[in-house]
Amino acid sequence: MEAPAAPHVPGEPGSSRSSYEIVIHSPAQMLDLGRRLAKLLRAGDLVMLNGELGAGKTTLTRGLGEGLGVRGAVTSPTFVIARVHPSLVEGPPLVHVDAYRLGGGLDEMEDLDLDVSLPESVVVVEWGEGKVEELADDRLSVVIHRAVGDTTDEVRHVTVTGLGARWASVELGVLSA
Predict the structure, then answer these.
(1) Angle formed by the axes of helices 57-68 and 27-38, to 10°?
(2) What is the mean pLDDT of residues 95-122?
(3) 174 near 32, Cβ under 8 Å?
(4) Which one, of 156, 112, 111, 118, lies nearest residue 140 by Cα?
(5) pLDDT of 55-73, one tens digit each?
(6) Cα(29)–Cα(24) distance, integer angstroms
(7) CB-based contact 101:80 (threshold 8 Å)
(8) What is the tens place of the pLDDT at every residue in 139-170?
(9) Which of 8, 60, 83, 92 could form a disulfide with 34 if both were Cys (CB 3.0 to 4.6 A apart)?
């Protein structure tokens, strides 16, 4: 794994925003990034994952599940929309949502009762941009960029951005460890 492109970049003056960029070279490294990210998460955290198809969102979530010590194989919930993985280590459950097929905003997401699950769970929403931001002022946005088209390039550029007071004091640079 290469050194990060931007170690800790504060947002605009007066905002509660910090970002961290990291380059990932393999699915194994993406899984490991998820494990490291899990160490920063706690009950009530909302994580939004965005990126092209095949970028590694579910692989990252699988690493989060391993790091949080949850039960069950973390797989893409595309057809069931959401899966709950209870903790095996007295931590928060992982609620894994795939909003790809959901066209509406928060109205359509309300049927999933994420607002009820959020206080005691870590909620991870793939394809959540423009759909779940209203659930929490404090959230973590993870954007995964990959080469598109006919390519076997495994390189991913991941930008992790903490939004809100919850993430203002969290040092995202520990993700490079």
Answers:
(1) 40
(2) 67
(3) no
(4) 118
(5) 999 999 999 999 999 998 8
(6) 6
(7) no
(8) 999 999 987 766 677 899 999 999 999 999 99
(9) 60
